[in-house]
Amino acid sequence: MTVTISAVILAVTNKIQTHSAFAVFNKLCPYKMYPMGGNSMAGPFWSNGPAPGAFYNFPGSTVAGGAMQARSDTPGDFGTQRSYYPVTTGTSVVGLMFKDGVIIAADKLISYGSLARFHDVDRVYRINDKTVLGIGGDFADFQYIKRHIDQKVIDDQCLDDKNEMKPRSFYNWLTRVMYNRRSEFQPLYLDLVIGGMQDGEPFLGHVNLRGRSYTSNVVATGYGTHLALPLLREWSENPTAYQTLGQPEANDLMKRVMEVLWYRDCRSDPKYSQAVCTADGVKVDADCFVAQNWELAHTIKGY
What we know:
Blueprint: H1 2-28, H2 43-47, E1 61-62, E2 68-69, E3 88-90, E4 93-98, E5 101-107, E6 110-112, E7 115-118, E8 124-128, E9 131-138, H3 139-159, H4 167-183, E10 190-198, E11 201-207, E12 213-215, E13 218-220, H5 224-231, H6 233-236, H7 247-264, E14 271-278, E15 281-289
């Protein structure tokens, strides 16, 4: 009987001490912890989260009118969301002028991060008989701007005045479009290579996501700026060197460049598209392949 009374006294003492500790904790910490789904300040964070693809309205954020709200279902403007990085991307585009025209090439792979996701996708396009376009960067952004380009071409055709958009005009228009999107803090993540025949002379230019633009004998984007330009240095540093370069030699140079890019760039593909624009018009070859040689592969160890 004595043992039983002692046990009861000990249990009551522990309970009193426990309640005292909780009382002190509640005074120091007025925000209590509740289980998930309970009615508390933490409730909306767990049980009332954002819809798929939406953004969470964190407690205490400012909504329209300057009021502080803690619930995610309160309407308000939480700022315009921006895209900060591309998702599905294409790698290098290389352009080269020769004495009779322009040649632009790009492989046919669209990567999802580092995953070789979409194969056999053209990244070199004929705009009209005088203009070609190669794209690198985010492919979704290009699909967006391509709709506007197609509509611009249709508008020119509807005028039926036998006057097509020239490559320099197209180049300037893309510069304004890209700079406008950059100024709105919503850039199109693209590297654009524009080529064609301007009044009987070859033209080659580049526009990036900030609207920065330049013209040159040789243009490369992505990894090609590190790998392709050194191979074409002879033609890029001399402003008049392209005038001694014929189309067969330009084709051989482009084939060599695409081969090096395939070996060295892990985002590249052995199949590539190539567009040639001359005074006779535009010819696009969408089934070019890199000549591969892996005889030395068995000597590479440790990877």
